[in-house]
Design brief:
Layout (H helix, E strand, L loop, with lengths): L10 H24 L7 H14 L29 H15 L1 H5 L6 H9 L2 H6 L5 E4 L15 E5 L2 E12 L6 E7 L9 E7 L5 E6 L10 E12 L16 H35 L15 H28 L5 H25 L1 H5 L5 H10 L7 H13 L8
Parallel strand pairs: 1-4
Antiparallel strand pairs: 2-3, 3-7, 4-5, 6-7
Helix pairs in contact: 1-3, 3-7, 3-8, 5-7, 7-8, 7-9, 7-11, 8-9, 9-11, 9-12
Length: 406
């Protein structure tokens, strides 16, 4: 049974993440928000520090544990509760995003593609790809949240696959040294034929076309990438090359089961930052938030704050549940979507409400509240929009297929 308290063995890691967020990320947050597309070189030292911590075995890095569908607990392990790399990752990611979400997304070797590798790659590939910084390329100009309609193709040619297509909104698409590309082996076979490939950035045929100018997470580069007769060794197809029409989209969805709790953690961290600063600003203005009195007997501002904080806690607990289930090798697709849907909505609601509660201080650049409101919106969109998450949750609860409930 999941314990809703933060595991004691991870308290040190979480405290370290908080200290890094406060002392390294917060001070340069505004600088790189204004200097969009400039690489934050301060992160190189931070990445080296994280590598050193990882080598000690204290953590496996963001999403390092993955959601391995073929690795089920058995025997004594079935009765053993694990608080492993996935739970450590979401808790530390939330703390780092308390500092700055865009800078967390800019961390070397911590790309969303690394989570895809952790979930889908076989053991040999996991070893071979150690140390890579992988972006993840899913979205296409005509295909947003409906990943099953991917048009990028991968055609087998001898010992290689030839990839053709275009991907947009690729986080760290310019800075990463490789890209996990989703492509279809056979359009006529639908979802089951969609596979992911690790493509190195120096591979002929891969071209970064442009960097996007964005509302938020400006410190993170977001690229449009084209693939023109891009040849990839067959061994770089992640997982099994077999097309199993019975399992359908399961292999590809294992990636989302891993990354959605991480995105939920980003929203939880950013919202927590807004709540902490707003509480301080309200208290400076004479608004006291009393946790021992009913909300309806306090000021409107205090009552609103208490509602926001309660909503935030629900998002945090869903995030922890999804990650804990992954650590214990339990199917977590429903919980991953619930966490992403809840945290994405809560993140936008909390950060915008905090701007409103703080008035001119919230709207000006004198504080980071307006920045957090801009940053949080993407966390309700990428890795599956709010509407898509609600649709997935409804399908799983009602036991309906995608064709039965659209």
């Amino acid at each position: 049974m999941i314990n809703l308290e933060t595991p004691k063995k991870q308290a040190g890691l979480i405290d370290q993440a908080h200290q890094l967020a406060m002392n390294m990320l917060r001070p340069i947050s505004r600088k790189y928000d204004r200097a969009e597309h400039d690489y934050p070189h301060e992160l190189d030292m931070l990445a080296a520090l994280i590598d050193g911590v990882s080598e000690t075995g204290a953590t496996g890095g963001a999403g390092a544990g993955g959601v391995r569908r073929d690795d089920k607990p058995s025997g004594a392990d079935r009765a053993t509760v694990r608080n492993g790399a996935n739970l450590a990752s979401v808790l530390s990611v939330a703390e780092m995003c308390w500092g700055d979400t865009a800078l967390l997304l800019s961390m070397p070797r911590q790309g969303l593609g690394n989570s895809a590798i952790a979930s889908v790659a076989n053991d040999e590939q996991l070893e071979r790809y150690k140390g890579t910084w992988a972006a993840m390329a899913i979205t296409e100009p005509g295909t947003g949240s409906d990943s099953a309609n991917i048009t990028t193709t991968a055609v087998k040619d001898g010992d290689e696959y030839v990839i053709n297509g275009e991907k947009i909104y690729v986080t760290s698409g310019d800075r990463a040294d490789s890209v996990v590309v989703w492509a279809t082996l056979d359009k006529e076979l639908g979802r089951a034929a969609i596979k992911s490939f690790l493509v190195r950035k120096d591979n002929p045929g891969l071209k970064v076309e442009r960097l996007e100018h964005k509302l938020g997470i400006r410190a993170s580069d977001t690229a449009a990438i084209t693939f023109t007769d891009c040849r990839v060794p067959a061994e770089d197809l992640l997982g099994s090359p077999e097309i199993d029409t019975k399992s359908g989209f399961a292999g590809a969805m294992a990636t989302f089961d891993n990354t959605r709790p991480l995105v939920a953690a980003m929203a939880v961290g950013c919202a927590r930052a807004s709540l902490d600063l707003t509480r301080d600003l309200l208290e400076q203005a004479g608004v006291v938030i009393d946790y021992d009195r009913p909300a309806q007997s306090q000021s409107a501002a205090a009552a609103t704050f208490l509602r926001l904080e309660a909503d935030w806690e629900g998002a945090q607990l869903l995030m922890m549940q999804a990650a804990w289930m992954a650590d214990n090798r339990l199917p977590n697709s429903l919980e991953a979507s619930m966490a992403k849907a809840k945290a994405g909505r809560v993140g936008s609601d909390v950060t915008l409400s905090c701007v409103q509660l703080c008035g001119t201080l919230g709207y000006s650049e004198g504080e980071l509240l307006e920045k957090w409101a801009r940053d949080s919106k993407i966390l309700d969109i990428f890795e599956g929009t709010q509407q898509i998450q609600q649709l997935i949750v409804a399908r799983r609860i009602l036991g309906l297929t995608s064709s039965e409930l659209k």
